[in-house]
Design brief:
2 domains; alpha/beta; two-stranded antiparallel sheet; TIM Barrel; 10 strands
Length: 413
């Protein structure tokens, strides 16, 4: 594992951090805590010493699971990062209340890296007016937090204003080869580094959109590279190639992905990609921009939807359909997952255009308008397909019940 230094403190952090926003789940949608614990501890054993969570992740369960996973001596091996949710703060006392509850949940007496969560200009001004900078000073003095920072989702000018407003030790930005000019972007990354801040990078693979299943036109570019690497490795190496980056967070929830990322983090030195490799990544970037419909990262800040729409899920299927237009799988999965065939309906057509999601979106996507596009593209056959498929499933289940009644079989638990 390679490590990089926090400029203002000299703290050495692993270049790969473990993000706890997408922990492995059970079939019912909760966290698979046993598996998540094994993964977190395996990552720490592999050299990771920075673990990131937040109260909103997994609807409040992420901090709980992490606190228990770090028992048995693992807490002493890592720096914990968690966040103050500005949307839950109405007065100065809320800040202390939230932090004290987090300390208890995480089973620790201090937070190593404490962030103001998902700041933009307006949310920062709100917190500043309520005394958040004085709160951070007090929490550092009494030892409840060690380093103060913020995560960011707004434009470059707002980023500069927040950077200049306080003596931060670090910040967290979204950065990948599709987002060089979005939000803080490359210019913001360099500005923060010039001010002596450690920079933590989130969404290095755009919520997994730059890895996993790759469109043929993208894979063709990767296949042309003299040195064969997975798309995930290319994406991570591109971020680590920037010397201003301190830690790259990965929302790892698969054992193979953890091992691959650990391997790459052993050798991803800054400024190690060649000029030809940067050209290759640029060609991939241009093709992704041509193919993708929505720049959703799947962060879930838009949820829950008052109308019951699974907004990130709908966008994921919509993008998948755009990336693989000749494969009907995405539409079938959309119908199955969101059309009410399995579980409650959560399709885009339920959108009431209330706009709550758009206000919460870190990417500033016009979600209500995009929901109309998703519905038009993905739901044309849903009104017919869902009743038919539901009837097929009913017949299959009934046949199984009849067979068991005749043979005396018992269903699997």
């Amino acid at each position: 594992m390679l490590y990089r230094t926090v400029p203002k403190t000299g703290d050495n952090l692993s270049i790969l951090g473990f993000g706890c926003m997408r922990l492995p789940s059970t079939r019912t949608g909760g966290i698979d805590e046993e598996r998540a614990t094994r993964q977190i501890r395996h990552a720490i054993d592999g050299g990771i010493n920075y673990v990131d969570t937040a109260p909103v992740y997994h609807l409040g369960k992420s901090e709980q699971v992490l606190g228990r996973a770090l028992a048995g001596g693992y807490r002493e091996k890592v720096r914990i990062a968690t966040k103050l949710p500005h949307w839950s703060v109405y007065e100065r006392a809320d800040m202390d209340r939230i932090l004290d509850a987090q300390l208890k949940t995480l089973q620790t007496d201090h937070i190593d890296y404490y962030l103001l969560h998902s700041l933009g200009r307006s949310s920062f001004e709100k917190l500043r007016g309520l005394g958040v900078l004085e709160f951070l000073d007090a929490a550092k003095r009494d030892g409840r937090i060690r380093n103060a920072g913020f995560s960011f989702h707004d434009n470059l000018s707002a980023f500069r204003e927040i950077i200049d407003a306080y003596d931060w030790q670090f910040c967290q930005i979204q950065y990948n080869y599709l987002d060089e000019q979005n939000q803080a972007g490359t210019e913001g990354l360099r500005y923060a580094a010039q001010k002596g801040l450690a920079v933590i990078v989130m969404e290095p693979l755009r919520g997994g959109n730059l890895a996993g299943r790759i469109p043929p036109s993208i894979q063709k570019f990767w296949d042309e590279a003299p040195l064969r690497r997975s798309p995930a490795e290319w994406g991570l190496r591109w971020v680590w190639d920037h010397p201003e980056v301190t830690v790259v967070l990965s929302g790892m929830n698969d054992e193979a992905h953890i091992d691959e990322n650990l391997r790459v983090a052993d050798s991803a030195l800054p400024e190690s990609l060649s000029g030809d490799e940067h050209v290759l990544i640029g060609r991939v970037r241009d093709e992704y921009r041509r193919l993708m419909k929505v720049g959703c990262t799947g962060c879930g800040y838009c949820m829950p939807c008052p109308a019951g729409v699974d907004i990130p899920g709908c966008f994921a299927s919509y993008n998948s359909h755009a990336l693989f237009p000749h494969d009907r799988t995405a539409k079938f999965q959309y119908i199955g997952r969101h059309g009410g065939l399995i579980g409650d309906r959560s399709h885009a057509g339920l959108c009431r255009q209330c706009g709550k999601c758009a206000k919460a979106c870190p990417q500033h996507l016009p979600i209500p308008s995009l929901m109309k596009d998703v519905s038009k593209e993905m739901e044309g056959m849903m009104g017919v397909a869902v009743p038919v498929l539901r009837g097929v499933l009913w017949c299959v289940n009934r046949a199984g019940r009849v067979r068991r009644a005749i043979t005396g079989e018992t269903p699997h638990a």
